[in-house]
Write a structure and sequence with these properties.
By secondary structure, chain A is mostly helical. Chain A has a domain at 85-223: Up-down Bundle (Four Helix Bundle (Hemerythrin (Met), subunit A)). Chain A has helices spanning 3-19, 45-71, 73-81, 85-111, 114-144, 153-184, 193-222. Chain B has 3 helices and no strands. Classes of the chains: A mainly alpha, B mainly alpha.
């Protein structure tokens, strides 16, 4: 039996536990293990397949952007001069910090503190909102100055690639907000294994969004 | 167990600070009017380093099965390397 099959079996067993109505089950000893002692994939296998599918799509966008930049250097440099590097920096710092607070939330969950887990997630959502507001401001400034998707290849790639990433941030914020509401409605002192798995899946998705910005940021604002 | 978790929290904080400093270093580097190839190399190293820190510590993939960790690290190294190779060739 492969590791993936064993993992699927493990997830099915978790769902069966939920179906049997034991949603208030406390974390087992294995879930309380420190991260360095864990040997499983954090979160659900399906989420990781989705994450790698998304990473592949973004890789194609990054290659296309770089290729167009290398063949239209003057156009891209002129376009980059109209961007706001400080906005890019604020967004990057906000998402890195948000990723950090999500990682803390997962750590608190493993420690068994729902209250601190909830605070970590709320902080992450608020930091993500900073990204949303700053990005909308930046889009507004560019559109007001007369730049849009059809201006030239630079703006087409800029709006398309950053817009696609922006949509992922919005989806991540919705997922994290759902996790906050789920934690609010819990009556137990600690997370069930299913909720722990959901939290780790949400966190993994949010880290992916952060990772993508780390590659996107130098392409758009630095180089 | 709580000592281990406390150490993990400290590790997360140190990595977060490192990521912020690396981001600032990339911005400062771009303002120093370095040679284009030098700037590309510096930014490539910074980007790959930040990606590996996120995969290792924030995503906690170091403890995951090796195939998943290997896939993520391959992505973090190969994709930026190809992107910067395209920039180098221009």
């Amino acid at each position: 039996m492969s590791a993936q099959q064993r993992e699927r079996g493990s997830h099915r067993a978790n769902n069966m536990t939920l179906n049997e109505g034991v949603s208030s089950l406390s974390l087992s000893a294995s879930s309380h293990r420190a991260p360095s002692q864990r040997t499983e994939l954090p979160g659900d296998l399906a989420v990781w397949i989705f994450i790698f599918a998304e990473l592949t799509v973004f890789a194609i966008f990054f290659f296309c952007y770089s290729w167009m930049h290398s063949h239209n250097i003057d156009m891209f440099r002129a376009g980059q001069e109209n961007l706001h590097p400080i906005a890019g920096l604020i967004n990057t710092v906000a998402l890195i910090t948000s990723s950090y607070t999500v990682a803390l939330a997962v750590l608190f969950a493993r420690r068994g503190s729902i209250r601190l887990t909830r605070y970590g997630l709320i902080a992450s959502v608020l930091l993500g909102m900073i990204y949303v507001v700053t990005k909308l401001w930046e889009y507004g400034e560019l559109i007001e100055a007369g730049f849009n998707l059809s201006t030239n290849n630079f703006y087409m790639f800029y709006f398309f690639t950053t817009g696609f990433h922006f949509m992922h941030v919005l989806l991540g914020l919705v997922i994290l907000s759902i996790m906050v509401f789920r934690l609010n409605s819990l009556n137990t002192a600690s997370l069930s294994e299913t909720e722990q798995l959901n939290l780790e899946s949400s966190a993994s998705y949010w880290h992916m969004v952060d990772l993508l910005l780390i590659i996107l940021f130098p392409l758009v604002y630095v180089l | 167990m709580f000592d281990v978790l406390k150490a993990e929290g400290l590790r997360l904080t140190v990595v977060w600070l490192g990521l912020i400093l690396l981001t600032l270093a990339a911005i400062i580097g771009s303002q120093l009017h370095m040679e284009h190839d030098v700037l590309l190399t510096v930014v490539a190293v910074i980007t790959i380093s930040k990606g590996i820190l996120i995969a290792d510590v924030f995503m906690d993939l170091r403890a995951a099965p090796k195939v998943w960790y290997g896939l993520m690290v391959s992505y973090i190294i190969i994709v930026p390397a190809l992107i910067f190779a395209i920039y180098f060739s221009s």
